[in-house]
Specification:
Zincin-like, 36 strands, four-stranded mixed β-sheet, 21% strand, single chain
């Protein structure tokens, strides 16, 4: 058999024939993966089709635009989930094609409903062609830039070639977009004179005007494409040319000319510098990551995410240009009414709501229609003639819209007169807000219902409406838009939601979404500063544990670094959103918050000195198992502090979280050199779990790869690196003496005997040594193949194993301890495509070979008599035939000799920088540290400790 180590995952391939049961399980696995993959591929199209059918069924109901826009994010969420989940069930080679098919499937699923809603006549092929061409022409360049770090391999030549391609695309961006959108010179005599008057009033050279877009579909768009030299270009969709009045089309043209006035000179230079800057960052990042030998997978993914975030934020930051261009367009065409009418029709054609949720508006490239009309008409909208009473569905609640206030009434008895005064007097709860306090008052679609939404800071009020009430509400809101407050902090709240989504997405890709599931669920489905801040703290904490190599987090080092950045960003934005309308927190409050972890650490330090060892150790191991629980408590505490809840709420949570972190973190590798509970003073606490100190020895280097003689009188550890970069083992007794032996591998077959594999200039030799307090002496030696790498021994024989790469074979050499006789066996190992096979360590058995690997982070190499675990913070794991592995606990570098079935105890070695301890670990009946041999079922290899 052979083992493949690829991307940190051990793949085991056996040369043994596969029986019918194994073949059946293999077929079931493949078929289930294909089935899940196909379900994921069709999911976006299925969701789009289902949502579209529901919209078509209620086409005449009010709030069609709101209901249409509410359905699209759900389809988009499913489409985003597909490329995340597909790699978990299907090979990498198939993912790209299937993701593309899922995107096309989403368009196909939406097509039937779109034709009805937008009253279109084009074919499915025409719709798909236009959608994909627009996606490529308008967004393709930015997608190509942001995704570059994810697929460039870090070599400078491909990066330079791709960079040149992106530069060429940037230069020809406008030309390519015009070609893809079927642009043709505009030939409309009734518009030419109107356009000429507008151009004469403008301060820029008259642009070229093209008609673009489909003729049979609804596509209400217009673009301004500035040029550094020469005439710029304006593209106006055929939908607008056909369905708008001439004066309205002139206003749209004036709006695009206003954009050209804005984007020139220094402003245009900044835009060009931004596009070339992100292009340079995209192609240079993989090269630098490879040069600095940074973990490329997560680092390149993090760079791509940062580029997407930067480009998105840059586009969203330009929404102020739209309002300026509206006002300038009104001046150029001389008709504010025409500009307002054009905007209203444009939104109606595109089924875009008049009012937007403030978070969506903050992240959008355009402000809402209500905001734009408010700016065009000034701050004096028409007044509401009389109060409008809106009843909820089902009944029991009311909203009263007045000229300057809105009143929310709950618990109104049936039969109450529908007058504002009577309803307010009968209501169980009345909430009254001035319109100037509200940043949002709109009709929305939520869970298939039409609702009236109001927002005051972080507080959101909702009232379900019947279709008739929704129509009345829409008319009333048109008179109130101009009296609402400007939405301060909406951008921060929207970015906090976006950061929360990225934080949870990072844990999903890293393979452990459960680590942040509770705060992520709250932040995504009940967004608010409390949930977002908590998620950020938990995400950053889990990332820190992953960066330190703590196993409970389930997060690798690269993923940990990404989570720390995203978590801190999410928490910071959540705190800022919570404090947006408040003055900075007093220094006293911050000081109290800073004292919480200090007090927790002080209490923990005192507890170490005064608590009984058994209690101390139990608390320590429990806290180490609940580190993520402590992080959840800490996240809750910070969130409560951020939203200014009483200290009675957040102080206890912070104190408990700090105490748990103090108790558990010392057992986390990478944060402390060694666990203070298991250091030189560990004799007391360790007795609480049944470990007995059998002996100790002072070594010159940290010990690992434990070898023990059958009676436990001799040990061998190593290899210790020497100045000559040779391997040196220490062989000795727990009576206090040791000898150094230069060797590639050492085995202890019997009392007072050591087998040594020596590395010569052109050959390797196996020597049997007599080990005594005074020194070592050779009993016999034999030459062995140079590819031999490991030794193991069991009376009366010995065995050596290795890999002959030249012959593509596994090698096993064995003999008797009584003399240098030699027996050699070779086994060919399979190849898998063009992937290089990396056998890590081999055990030769009479029936075949078994391979076990060194993991990419916590190395584990097993042979017949010992389990050598690479340096790091490890735990003693016991295996039972009828139970999962159980941790009995240590945090030092640890090695355990394999116990035979039925043995009462196993021998384990742990070490610090200066001392080494031998522990006798009691075993439960039927338990063992590692099985002595693996036979037949190679899948067991993956379930080792």
């Amino acid at each position: 058999m052979s083992a493949v180590l690829r991307k940190g995952v051990l793949r085991v391939a056996s040369l043994c024939p596969i029986d019918s049961g194994q073949a059946s399980r293999l077929r079931e696995t493949v078929l289930s993966g294909l089935l899940i993959g196909m379900l994921l591929v069709v999911a976006p199209g299925a969701v789009a089709y289902w949502k579209g059918r529901r919209l078509v069924a209620s086409l005449d109901a009010p709030a069609l635009a709101e209901r249409t826009q509410a359905a699209l994010p759900q389809v988009l969420a499913v489409a985003i989930a597909v490329p995340i989940l597909l790699p978990m069930v299907l090979p990498d080679r198939a993912v790209s094609l299937l993701v593309a098919l899922s995107i096309v499937g989403g368009f196909v699923g939406w097509y039937p409903a779109r034709r009805v809603i937008f009253r279109e006549t084009w074919s499915l092929a025409g719709y798909l062609s236009h959608s994909l061409r627009f996606l490529l022409g308008y967004f393709g360049y930015w997608i190509a830039v942001a995704s570059a770090p994810a697929f460039l391999d870090g070599r400078w030549a491909p990066a330079a070639a791709y960079g040149a391609f992106l530069v060429a695309w940037n230069i020809g961006y406008g030309w390519l977009l015009a070609k893809l959108m079927y642009a043709r010179p505009l030939d409309r005599a009734e518009l030419e004179e109107r356009f000429a008057v507008i151009s004469a009033r403008s301060t820029v050279l008259a642009p070229r005007v093209f008609a673009c877009g489909p003729e049979q579909g609804t596509w209400p768009m217009a673009f301004a494409l500035p040029e550094v030299r020469g005439r710029s270009t304006v593209l106006i969709a055929r939908t607008l040319l056909e369905r708008l009045e001439p004066e309205e089309t002139g206003a749209i043209y004036a709006h695009e000319v206003a954009h050209l006035e804005e984007h020139r000179g220094a402003r245009l230079a900044r835009g060009i510098a931004f596009s070339y800057g992100v292009t340079l960052a995209a192609v240079a990042a993989p090269v630098l990551l490879r040069l600095w030998e940074v973990e490329s997978g997560w680092a390149s993914g993090g760079v791509s995410a940062a580029l997407f975030f930067t480009i998105f934020a840059w586009m969203a930051s330009r929404k102020g240009d739209e309002t300026k261009s509206d006002l300038r367009a009104a001046e150029l065409c001389g008709d504010r009414g025409a500009m307002a009418s054009a905007l209203v029709k444009l939104h109606q054609l595109g089924q875009v709501p008049r009012r937007m949720e403030e978070g969506a508006e903050a992240l959008s490239t355009h402000p809402s229609l209500a905001r734009r009309l408010q700016a065009l008409r000034g701050d004096a909208p028409r007044a509401l003639a009389e109060p409008v009473v809106l009843a909820s569905s089902p009944p029991g609640s009311f909203v009263v819209l007045e000229a300057e206030r809105v009143r929310w009434l709950e618990g109104v008895p049936d039969g109450t007169a529908s007058t504002p005064a009577a309803l307010q007097e009968a209501a169980r709860l009345v909430r009254s807000y001035a319109l100037s306090e509200l940043s949002e008052l709109r009709i929305a679609s939520r869970r298939g219902r039409i609702e009236l939404h109001a927002r005051r800071g972080n507080e959101v009020l909702r009232l379900a409406l019947s279709p008739e009430e929704a129509r009345r509400a829409e008319e009333a809101l048109n008179a109130l838009d101009g009296k609402l407050a400007r939405s301060e902090g909406a951008g921060t709240r929207a970015l906090a939601r976006l950061a929360a989504s990225f934080t949870f997405l990072a844990t999903v890709v890293a393979g452990n979404p459960l680590a942040v599931l509770l705060p992520a669920f709250a932040a995504l489905f009940k967004p608010g500063p409390l949930a977002q801040t908590s998620l950020g703290v938990v995400g950053a904490g889990v990332g820190l544990l992953g960066l330190a190599g703590q196993s409970e987090s389930g997060i690798g080092i690269g993923a940990g670094a990404t989570l720390i950045v995203l978590g801190l960003l999410c928490a910071g934005l959540g705190i800022r959103a919570a404090r947006q309308h408040e003055s900075p927190a007093p220094l006293e409050r911050l000081a109290v918050a800073a004292l919480v972890p200090a007090a927790a650490f002080a209490i923990g330090a005192v507890a170490v000195e005064i608590l009984p060892p058994r209690t101390l150790l139990t608390a320590h191991l429990t806290a180490n198992d609940w580190l993520t629980g402590a992080l959840h408590l800490l996240g809750l505490a910070v969130g409560l502090w951020a939203v200014r809840r009483s200290a009675l709420f957040w102080l206890p949570a912070a104190a408990v979280a700090g105490a748990l972190l103090f108790a558990g973190l010392p057992a986390t590798s990478g944060l402390w050199v060694q666990d203070p509970f298991f250091g030189p003073r560990a004799a007391g606490p360790t007795s609480a779990i049944g470990l007995k100190l059998a002996g100790s020895a002072t070594l010159e280097c940290p010990a690992y790869e434990l070898r023990l003689s059958p009676d436990g009188s001799l040990f061998a550890t190593g290899p210790c690196p020497t100045e000559e970069e040779e391997h040196e083992y220490l062989v000795g007794s727990f009576d206090g003496w040791t000898h150094s032996v230069k060797a590639v591998s050492v085995a202890l077959p019997a009392e007072g005997r050591a087998l040594v594999l020596e590395d010569g200039e052109a050959e390797r030799r196996v020597r049997l040594l007599a080990v005594e307090p005074s020194g070592t002496r050779e009993l016999w030696s034999v030459e062995v193949p140079a590819s031999l790498s490991t030794l193991s021994a069991a009376t009366p024989g010995w065995r050596g194993d290795g890999v002959d790469w030249a012959k593509q074979q596994l090698l096993s050499v064995g003999g008797e301890l009584d003399g240098p006789g030699l027996h050699t066996r070779r086994f060919a190992f399979a190849t898998e495509g063009e992937e290089r096979l990396v056998p890590m360590a081999f055990v030769g058995l009479e029936e075949g070979f078994v391979a076990s690997s060194a993991g990419f982070e916590s190395a584990k190499v097993a042979d017949m008599l010992s389990a050598a675990m690479g340096q790091g913070t490890l735990a003693v794991s016991l295996l039972a035939a009828d139970a999962p592995p159980a941790v009995v606990g240590t945090a030092l570098t640890l090695s355990c000799a394999a116990g035979r079935p039925g043995d009462a105890e196993a021998l384990c070695l742990s070490s610090s920088d200066e001392r080494t301890w031998l522990w006798r670990v009691p075993l439960k009946p039927g338990a063992q540290v590692l099985e002595q041999t693996w036979r037949g079922d190679f899948s067991q290899i993956a379930h080792g400790p």
